[in-house]
Inverse folding.
């Protein structure tokens, strides 16, 4: 997600895209609620994100300007590259999971269809928003959005049976504070903010891998253990996209300003 696009004066998303964004946020929230069919809401989110670009390519909607059209095409290119990479990695990584029955019968991949649907939406949004508002302002808004969604999730998801309220909410609240702090740091001090995002992203990925290795009980049924490992891999990929890639974009923007 290149930071070479010039920062434009305060831009507002076109009205149709604004409506689509609201629908997408609703889909994100509903996607996190227990007991609901997450695939449906992932589809709603995807249609909200890709609906307006599709209508513009069909000529039903007109582009606001050439700037918006160019970043839409570039965001689409980034999305295609990301999905192509995961599709091609699946058969390469298959020997690592071929001993599991679900993998042998083609029911499980490292990067499942559901994961790739989510990744398509995530990459397109990250690329589009970072280009549209510029890396610093774009990452600022993205991190605040993630913090807001996390807060909504804490308020709407029920407390698991047997959990202490404080022990359950404190990690989420700590994450929200961290996201807000990184958002403001990325906007005000791009060099510091960019490095902070990269370091935090790498630490979270490392912690997830270590936690996954320790929690993977050898006595756990094979299929369950495979799903657990795949889940850890998928979470680390999304953390990499949101934090590390965003951090690199902010760093490049800060260096360009210094030059």
């Amino acid at each position: 997600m290149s930071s070479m696009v010039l920062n434009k004066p305060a831009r507002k998303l076109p009205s149709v895209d604004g409506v689509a964004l609201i629908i997408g946020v609703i889909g994100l929230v509903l996607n996190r609620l227990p007991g609901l069919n997450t695939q449906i809401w992932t589809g709603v989110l995807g249609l909200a994100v890709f609906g307006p670009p599709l209508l513009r390519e069909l000529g039903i909607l007109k582009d606001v300007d050439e700037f918006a059209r160019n970043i839409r095409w570039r965001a689409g290119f980034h999305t295609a590259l990301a999905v192509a990479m995961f599709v091609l990695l699946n058969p390469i990584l298959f020997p690592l999971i071929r001993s599991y029955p679900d993998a042998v019968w083609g029911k499980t991949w490292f990067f499942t269809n559901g994961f790739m649907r989510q990744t398509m939406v995530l990459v397109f949004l990250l690329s589009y928003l970072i280009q549209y508002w510029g890396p610093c302002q774009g990452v600022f808004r993205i991190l605040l959005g993630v913090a807001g969604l996390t807060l909504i999730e804490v308020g709407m998801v029920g407390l698991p049976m047997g959990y202490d309220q404080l022990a359950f909410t404190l990690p989420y609240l700590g994450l929200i504070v961290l996201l807000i702090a990184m958002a403001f740091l990325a906007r005000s001090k791009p060099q510091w903010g960019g490095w902070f995002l990269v370091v935090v992203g790498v630490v979270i990925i490392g912690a997830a891998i270590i936690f996954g290795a320790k929690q993977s009980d050898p006595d756990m049924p094979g299929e369950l253990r495979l799903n657990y490992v795949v889940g850890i891999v998928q979470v680390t990929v999304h953390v990499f996209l949101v934090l590390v890639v965003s951090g690199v974009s902010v760093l490049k923007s800060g260096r360009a300003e210094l030059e």
